[in-house]
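Good morning,

Both structures are done.
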Amino acid sequence: MSKQLQFKLVLLGESAVGKSSLVLRFVKDQFDDYRESTIGAAFLTQTVTLDDGTVVKFEIWDTAGQERYKSLAPMYYRNANCAVVVYDITQSASLEKARNWIRELQRQADPSIIIALCGNKSDLAARRQVSQEEAQKYAEEEGLMWAETSAKTGEGVSEIFTAIAKKLPTTAAPSSRAGAGGRTGAAGGRSGVDLNRQQNAVSTNEPCNC
């Protein structure tokens, strides 16, 4: 039986940079031109199968970008294994907001968290305000993963989540499942949850909250 691991992933970034569209493209391979702003946070799951057969299940928390919801963010990134901080390549101010989120994660999130900086809306390159060189240089200085994506066309979307999955540890510590603001790993750290160990505890006739 292939190994199945579960990790908590949070999306952060200014409102309207395309966080929800990015998740929708990754989870359902869909794009909606007229998505309403997220209220609080949305929860979705998706799996990635690595080359060695390991199945990585992401518990994805898509947080609202509006300032009034900012105080809720720590509830979602606390004990997260990985974070995708999204900016809009056509809005230079959104990169500055992304830098603020990254500083906050570096101060308050788990020290072992994997952070990916993601420049969305690459399909609007003609309106670009943030150069690839500037974003990539910043990511390298801060030790972040970096990529550009287009939630509209799908370009680069599955690649960034797969790259994150490959960087996560594939050794799992016994642990309870991560819940709403929950803990992932025995000490709330980066260890994945081995879903194979939990299968017997989950009835196949009942919805699984894992």
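Second structure follows.
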Amino acid sequence: MQELVFPPPVAPTLPVRGLSARLPVRRIFCAGRNYAAHALELGAEAGRSAPFFFTKSPSALAQSGETIPYPPGTRNYQYELELVLCLGSHAFRVSESEAVAAVYGYACGLDMTRRDLQRALRAAGQPWDLGKDVEASAVVAEITPAADFGVPDGQRIWLSVDDELRQDAHLSDMLCSPMALIAELSKFYHLAPGDLIFTGTPAGVAPLAPGARIRGQIEGLTPVEVTIGEPE
């Protein structure tokens, strides 16, 4: 057995509805501006020919129900509620119809964003990493197995902050469907069990303050909840 300088990090995991076993997370992909109204509120064009993606480190994963700190380096920390696809099998160069078989389950997720940094980096033509790949910024609820959820289609997706409704749309409002996102990603990556795909957020994003309580819901899935703690 090869000797290591220090112990390797333990893979983060997520709970699965109805099971004591947990799902290990391998990678986190995120689709950008996949709802037209959200693209417009960010000052971008509403339509495009193909989806685009960014990534978050697995270490960015946080569990629903936690209190996460307001992160350093920002004065504009925002929520984005999203449907998360949890893969359970390999997918490489698959079609949309083939992509369905790769999905193990679905979950509600929050793509937390340092919006001021994202905007500044985008304006400078630089990568968004400091704005998006933030510690505890990928908050994911309990996974619902695909057989218990059905097909993502017209289900309602909505989010409240301190019990005030902020986002309200339907999964059918996506510019690129969940299976189209899998098919597109599989052109460039050997997707594998444990990969998560955040599918984009509806309009209604806004800054948060310490103490804010966020609750995001999608019909048929376990809600995702998080409280914003004090700045570090």
